[in-house]
Structures are given as C-alpha cells and as structure tokens.
Request: fold
Amino acid sequence: MNNIELLKNFITEVKENDNFWLLEAKPGLFAMVEDGNENSFIPVWSKEQDALNNASDDWEGYNVSSMSIDEFVGWMRELHEDEIGIAISTGEDGQMLPMPALSMKQILVGAEVDVEEDKKLVGEYYDEEWAEGIPDNWEEEFLDSLSDDEDDDDE
Reply:
C-alpha cells in the first residue's frame, strides 16, 4: 500500500470513529518518535488495538488514550508552534507516515469540527484564518499534489 492509500484509509477510519488513539505516559505526556534529522512526531493510530499493540519496548507501561477529532484539531496549533509533527501509524510493522501538524489540521478541518469547542480549546488565541477550512474537494487536490511530489522524486 502506498503512502496516499495509507493516508486515505487512516483519515477515513478516524472520521468514522471520530477519534485518534495515542500512547500516553501520564496525562498530557504522549509517546514521541524522531526521524533521522531530529524532527519530533507524536504517533497516532486510527484503531485502539493498533495503539495497544505498540505499547511495548520504549513505550511499555504507556496507556492507550483516545482523543476526539475536535480536541485533536485544537491541539494542532500548539504542536505546529512547537515544531512537532504527527506520525500516522499504520499498524503494519511499525510503519509511520510523518506529517506536519498544520497539514493534519488542514485535512481534518474538512471533518465535522465543533468551531465553538475549538474556540474554547484555543481561547484568546483563536484565529479565524488558522481555522479556515480547505475546500470540500481537498482529498482530490491534496492527494494529487502528493502524487505530483512523488513523481518529482522519481526524476
């Protein structure tokens, strides 16, 4: 399965369940991974069982916790400002697809998000421009842009 298919499946599952699954050491302290360039990412799963299956080795003793789409979207601004991305975990052999927090927010704004709840989560820092959604056909345009980028990498 290529990255575009993984992303599509992940977003579809998250939207169907209205939540993400994360590993949490203690309240507010989530599992993280780093890439070879020392960029940090918080791994997220679309299925509870996949998160449970990863609560071992470095993450042994971590609890599996869920987060609604609304809460997750509200959190993306903070992660973006802290230069922490999201690692979409596929549940397959620990494979992860890294994504900037801002991109994840843009993708999810197309999901049903409670704007008033988002405003509560962000408080006085709520920014209409930041919260502005992308078009309904985001999937087609976004995934096409990924395909174009992959084609460029092949050259």
Notes: The first helix runs from residue 3 to 17.
